[in-house]
């Protein structure tokens, strides 16, 4: 399945990323070349190979159920471009 | 839904989000879970704010709790489980994705039985998975007209379990019962306090047989589930009646106006662009299963069976009493010191009734010791049933000591001599009613009993009055 410019537009809108027409075409081309590469991988014989679920091979890393001191409110809001009454302020959603 | 001919046409599936609010810290960071009622954004850290470079590490106890819930719902525990990023752009997520589970949820393929009309229905549990709660959005006015949102990330990262059922429920009432039973089990497991605001939130999928499925999101009260479903079902029925096709969509439930409004057409699963969370390592914890299974407490259904055997109480009483862990504990406390069947009647019927009437919880009731005292007075004949109810009401409304209440309100039962005298007086004063009784109108006796009760200010024992009246009437 090839990625069309329309697919790129759809994905960009889901991710809230603005792309101009040139960029859309460039991304479509790049996506397709990535998929071509995956097709090559599909051709490999993987019989008897254990699946890998994660890249670094670790598992079962936990922390105990202990609480620590949170950030003070003004620290938490420090990077926010807009805030009000201790809340972050965001765009309307519907 | 009863009696309107809908049975069999309604199909409901639920996704129930429960906060594991008995944990000390959030799912992936050490912020406290005690975030209720705090000033906004005062219980956050780089991890739950999604700041660059912050790394989540999973709370071990949250995994143990999830396995316990899975086991309590007769699920299989996964051999291998891991987290995924669910990408969507929404201000309640600081990172632009939610950390949740997708393939290999921690538990799957369980069942829970729920009472349907006159039978037990088995509801299949598709999966139980762990995820983080997003932040809380505050809208200015309604969600539709608000110009912007205010965001509080105190809730962000709260540990959630999502329980997903198969579409096996057939009415809003069954859905409510299912949720109550699930809540009850979680409280027995001591992983959840359902009385906290927002502790349990439900998305419901509902369709009429053959029609499209509509998802109602964010139902946040227990009563709201039944009401939202009733509203949505009648909306779909009206459309069907008018020949309009129901479209698949996501709707928001407005608790205040009791209606559902359209939010957006449903996002497809692939649009969330799930992919394995690279910052969290996979979990292989199936080996914990035997150890956790051994720590499971007695669950509601088992306790109900034990109560029936141990205390010889009826199935109905056992069901009411065990349907809430606090009530069950209260009952065991009382039943240990009094006649268990008497205790069952007074806890299940009278106390629960009085509490429901006041829209109050068992934890706001008076102490079991006071109930034991009342039942002792009742058993030894110091007070009547009516008197006992009055003491309970006074305790619930004003508090105090049952002994003082009995004294100050003159509730102690009158002596038999006084009752006898009152009975004699009533017989003298109501010759007409006596004639009726002798002419074969048994209801005249009730009238006479009432007269005696009035004369003794309700402090005579109606059963005794009844007996005395009959005796005297037979002799005259």
Overview of the molecule:
- Chain A is mainly alpha-helical.
- Chain A is 39% helix and 10% strand.
- Chain A has a two-stranded antiparallel sheet.
- The mean pLDDT of chain A is 90.
- With 476 residues, chain B is α+β, with helices and mostly antiparallel strands.
- Chain B folds into three domains: 282 residues, no CATH class; 112 residues, no CATH class; 60 residues, Arc Repressor Mutant, subunit A (Orthogonal Bundle).
- Chain B is 39% helix and 19% strand.
- In chain B, strands 3-6-7-10-1-11-12-13-14 form a nine-stranded mixed β-sheet.
- In chain B, strand 6 and strand 7 form a beta hairpin.
- In chain B, helix 7 runs antiparallel to helix 8, helix 12 crosses helix 15 and helix 14 packs across helix 15.
- The longest helix of chain B is centred in the middle third of the chain and has 20 residues.
- The N terminus of chain B is likely disordered.
- Strand 3 of chain A pairs antiparallel with strand 9 of chain B.
Short summary of the structure?
The complex is a heterodimer of chains A (94) and B (476). Chain A has 94 residues and is mainly alpha-helical. In chain A, 39% of the residues lie in helices and 10% in strands.
